[in-house]
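Risk register update: the risk that structure generation would not scale has been downgraded. Supporting records follow, first protein first.
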Amino acid sequence: MRCFNKVILVGNLTRDPELRYTSGGIAVTNFSIAVNRAYTTKSGEKKEEVSFFDVAVWRKLAENCGEFLKKGSAVLVEGRLKEDRWEGEDGNRHSKVKVEAYDVVFLSSKESRTAAIKEEEAFPPPAAAEEEETPF
């Protein structure tokens, strides 16, 4: 049997992202996004519901999210669902499902532009090779 775990969400950050580093020096950024759903009831009444999702991002993408995103930023998050389990001080078992993102697209125009510039600085295009004259 095959398994599949993929989620794509578009929403806005509910708070500023929190960038930290593990003891091994790996960057991790956590943030929460709100995803709105508008619908009309059978009686014709327009309603809106909001769902909140916690997101974790790792490595270079985590550093970019920590630097360029802020509360209210619009993002597209692509990743997988991950369940964290732990035992509390009271001895009870707890669990929480979050999104572990492997791609975050900055949709707010200012963040997109700034991140694109930063990406070009990190990975400059290769220098054009000088064309040699072919003698024929």
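Supporting record for the second protein:
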Amino acid sequence: MEHSHTPIIKIENLNFRYDRERVLEDINLTIPRGSFLGIVGPNGSGKSTLLKLMLGLLKVKQGEIELFGIPQQKFRQWDRIGFVSQKANSFNTGFPATVYEVVASGLAKKAGMFKRISAKYRKDIVEAIESVGMTPFSGRNIGELSGGQQQRVFIARALVSKPDVLILDEPTVGVDSKNVQTFYGMLDHLNKDIGITLLLVTHDIGSISSKVTHVACLNKHLHFHGKTEEFEKLKESEMSSFYGHDVHFLNHEHDHH
């Protein structure tokens, strides 16, 4: 029986290697229901590998992952976990599908193909589009939208099957900086108003630190995991040693190199 305090994801003593290269070492991480976790770390720190292990795309060989209190090997309710990959927004502009159809395709497993989606599901599709603020674009071709708008559509597609948790891999790649804050505001709405647990891999902890409830810093090891306010108290020098270069917590519009 699943209790409300059962964590959505629990990872214990997880290690992972590709051939000889150790990518993750001794990861212990609990993601409580209703939280908004930002996972940060330099390139090659194992962030994508960690996501793939959670999603069952890579096999856990050392350590354990539990999803909703069930060992991952026995877990079958994958519609409870929504995933939006980085590749979601590299869409061919000529792709002949409307926003409504793309979101509807998220129900293909439940409803058969979207040529004949019953009225029962129409409400879910309309609500998913509304929850990401894309209602006015419902009939528009996906290829005509900006990167940020496309990314919202893919989030709606992941939301249409009503998952409990949404996992996003670098969702603001391809979103221009002036729209990034609005985009994070939309995620904040999904988390606080709709109650979806969010897990976000990001390079840009400055922009999102006001929205996330917890932060995990990954660089093969988990160097920090805790509430956002504890994270913000870390000295820049501690973070720089973790990243291997200087880190500044600025809500920066642009990176200056």
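The longest strand covers residues 21-31. On this basis the risk owner (M.S.) recommends closing the item.
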